[in-house]
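Lecture 7 notes: from sequence to structure.
We start with the chain below.
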Amino acid sequence: MRLPQLALLALTVCPLLTGPAQAAPCGGDFQSFLSAMAAEAQAQGLPDSAIHAFLDNAQLDPKVIKADHGQGFFRKTFLDFSQALISKSRIQNAAIYSKKYNAAFTAAEKKFGVSRGIILAFWAFETDFGQVQGTFDTRNALVTLAHDCRRPDIFQPQVLAAIALTAKGDFAPGQTIGAWAGEIGMVQMLPRDILERGEDGDGDGKITLKTSAADAILSAAHMLQFYGWRAGEPWIQEVTVPQNLDWSKSSIDTELPSADWAAMGVTAKQGNLANLPASLLLPQGRKGPAFLVYPNYKVLFEWNKSFVYVTTAAYFASRIQGAGPYDAGNPDPALSPEQMTTLQKKLAKMGHDVGKIDGVLGALTRSAVQVEQQRLGLPADGWPTADLLAQL
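Predicted structure tokens for the same chain:
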């Protein structure tokens, strides 16, 4: 394992990875942008050979911007999203890969405390266990997103990390391909995460996330541990809730001891409630599936910011480790994207912070919905309905 070398490079690169490159203006002339990125890389002591190898032939990729603006699947409900992603074949393949790479999963759990179920779930969703790793030129994807003004603070440091990986011989500019957002390999990690938390799981002296399942498994575990994963603890558990519950408590922001939930009549569908702080999650309101989520669940938002993605991955991981199929219930119909946009505009006009008005039911919109449901005397479960929209 090359941990000493990784640690040294992390020390070299980390100062600049805390924010955007200081001299690289976004959105302007592309060649000027590349020159500014080169100057920033030089200021951080990265070798000229790697800087030129990475930046000299870099190009903007309009397909990357199109993909970034077109993430429509995040508008799906939890039921639609989870039923689309969790197939019988994926459940079967998870069992196959769990057995095939048992040694790597065992090592990941021993070293980093991360359960194999969550790694298998992300591995399945990100690349179908390495089968679909993306077709975008990673260098061009990174510089395109770093040049774009939406999130330069995220992607400019990733460009610099990729230059550091180039210097190590672990990135081939113009040859490395991956996802549109610059992620690489079986579990789709960004260059900075590879640089700082990549693991040589197969002992060959290299970190090769595109072809080595063991490297990918150990690296994913290291990343989750870094973001706060707590060894030996669950992350999500399906529950049954009484119909007279105070629905205003059903929020990811409301955390209570599991004993308090039990006192309110919340019971586990399988086994017992964990003796941990927990939040009651109703992805589609009180008439749909119900889960208690524990501290490890929130760690998963460091992997992906989407509520439906994280909740689906968490649930799938629990299925892989023995949980049964959820009870879908009979939730009220979801608002259309147009209705959701109208709802967000109304809530914003009333003074609520709903974040970006984009037709996506995010955490801020859910919180605002709950406040208005309480004000109107409706069940405050955070699930927006046509009736709520009409009353507003």
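Points to note: The CA atoms of residues 346 and 392 lie 7 Å apart. Confidence is low (pLDDT under 50) at residues 1-21.
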